[in-house]
């Protein structure tokens, strides 16, 4: 499957998840279950970033594997460079590292800040998920929830743009980006 289709599927899933979440979030907020609202919003962002990480790994790894395939099939004389043994996976169990996120999406301030394990947003997510911690006040919840960009397709466009820039000219990138359905 090509990258454009894969990104399209991720976008579709984010849209569906966001629509399903809207009613659930409202119920959580009305019931003062603000921690659950925050966590359920996190699930969408975390899932999307993990899937995009897998697409990025595949995009980076596939050319290297094809070089080795050609070499092993005697289509190339010289052995290609070794593929690092870093233990890659297309579907990571945990949130990708900060450097991986920035490699995929660039320096998207909100995404980087929210997913950074040293920042308060991810610490709060972990405290809720692992210690059943609550928000003390609704204003604190609103402060936290405003930065989780589950309705912003720019993170996906940024990622796709970075992938396409490696292989095509800027005009092709613009046409490709215009063809992606915004969230």
General description of the model:
- It is built from 8 helices and no strands.
- It has 183 residues and is mainly α.
- It has one domain.
- The model is unreliable at 166-183 (pLDDT under 50).
List the helices and strands and how they pair.
Elements: H1 3-30, H2 34-72, H3 98-105, H4 109-115, H5 120-131, H6 138-145, H7 154-165, H8 170-179
Helix pairs in contact: 1-2, 2-6, 7-8
Put the structure in a nutshell.
By secondary structure, the chain is an all-alpha fold.
- What would the principal axes of the Cα set say about the shape? elongated
CA-CA gap between termini: 22 Å
Amount of helix? 55-70%
Q: How would you classify the helix and strand content by structural class?
A: mainly alpha
Rg (CA only): 19 Å
| SS field, number of helical segments | 8
């Amino acid at each position: 499957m090509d990258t454009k289709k894969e990104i399209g599927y991720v976008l579709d899933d984010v849209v569906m998840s966001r629509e399903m979440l809207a009613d659930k979030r409202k119920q959580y907020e009305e019931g003062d279950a603000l921690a659950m609202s925050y966590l359920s919003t996190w699930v969408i962002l975390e899932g999307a970033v993990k899937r995009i990480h897998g697409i990025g790994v595949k995009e980076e790894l596939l050319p290297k594997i094809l070089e080795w395939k050609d070499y092993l099939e005697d289509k190339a004389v010289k052995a290609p460079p070794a593929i690092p043994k870093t233990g890659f996976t297309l579907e990571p169990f945990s949130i990708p590292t900060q450097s991986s996120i920035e490699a995929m999406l660039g320096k998207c301030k909100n995404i980087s800040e929210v997913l950074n394990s040293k920042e308060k947003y991810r610490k709060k997510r972990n405290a809720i998920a692992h210690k059943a911690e609550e928000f003390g006040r609704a204003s604190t919840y609103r402060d936290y929830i405003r930065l989780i960009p589950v309705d912003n397709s720019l993170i996906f466009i940024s990622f796709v743009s970075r992938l396409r820039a490696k292989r095509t000219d800027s005009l092709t990138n613009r046409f490709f980006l215009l063809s992606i359905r915004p969230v």
